[in-house]
Design brief:
This protein folds into two domains: 37 residues, no CATH class; 39 residues, no CATH class. Helix content is 72%, strand content 0%. It is built from four helices and no strands.
Length: 80
């Protein structure tokens, strides 16, 4: 594994890796909360933004762009 992990952490990781994906994702979520606590105000703002963008697409005010096209054009503009 990684030399920075203790034997206990290595055992935990091996056990976690053997779990079904849903359980691994739940563990990841819990660990992330300990690093970056949930901010309900930020979540509320992101949800509002997502709903606004979804409404714009459904109404036809905004036309979605394929992600690959966007990245290609962004790289071209940035000279990458």
């Amino acid at each position: 594994m990684n030399e920075t992990f203790t034997a206990e952490a290595t055992k935990f990781l091996r056990t976690a890796e053997s779990l079904p994906i849903e359980m691994r994702l739940a563990i990841i979520d819990r660990l992330l909360e300990t690093v970056q606590p949930i901010d309900s105000e930020v979540d509320r703002l992101w949800i509002a933004e997502a709903e606004k963008r979804s409404d714009e697409i459904r109404s036809g005010r905004v036309k979605p762009v394929d992600g690959r096209v966007f990245l290609r054009e962004a790289r071209e503009k940035l000279g990458l």
